[in-house]
Amino acid sequence: MPNNIGKSVEEAARIVRDGGVVAIPTDTVYGLACDMCNEEAVRRIYAIKGRPAHLPLIVMLAAASQWSLAAASATPYALEMMEKFWPGALTIILPARPELPELVLGGGSTVGLRIPDHNIARELLHLAARPLATTSANRSGSPAPDNATWVAEELGDDVDYILDGGTCPGGMASTVLNCAVEPPCILRPGPITAAQLGLS
User: Can you give the pTM of this predicted structure?
Assistant: First the structure.
C-alpha cells in the first residue's frame, strides 16, 4: 500500500498550490483534482486516468461567486440555479474563459462548474484558494472508487496525495445542465430533475 494516504486537508491544499495532483472525497465518489490553470498538472490527470483528451474535466468551486474565474459569462437563469442547487449534484455548463487550458475543456469552448456537497472537499477548495479541475479517481473504464484504500490500490503513487475522508456516499453522478445554449437543456440526467430546474 502506498504511503501517500493521509487526512490532512492542509497538506492536500499545499500540494495543489504547488502544482500537484491529489485524490479527494466528494459527495459522490473520490476524484482527482488539481489547479485548473496549471497545464502540467491537468496533463498529469489525463495521463494518470488514461482519459481521452476530447473529454473535458469538471471545475469545482468553493463558492458560487467564483464562477467568473472559469466562465466568461452566465445568464440570470444559470445564476439562479447556482443559488438554488449549490452545493449539490448540479454541474452547470457555461462559456469558458479563453485562458483556461485547452485540456480542461476537452478542446471545446465551454466549462462545467460544480460545488460539491462535501465538507472536506469544500474545505480543500477554500484552503487551496483556486478552482480545481476534477474527474473521478479511477483508470478510464474502471468503476469509480468510494474510499481512499480503493484509490490507493488503483492509482498507487501516481497521485501525490490521497486525502482520506472515509467512504463517499456514491449514487448518481450530478445532473449536467447546459446553460451555454438557449434554451438551457439537460445533457446528463441526474439527481436534480428537469422539473426542479424548471425545464419540464
Answer: 0.96
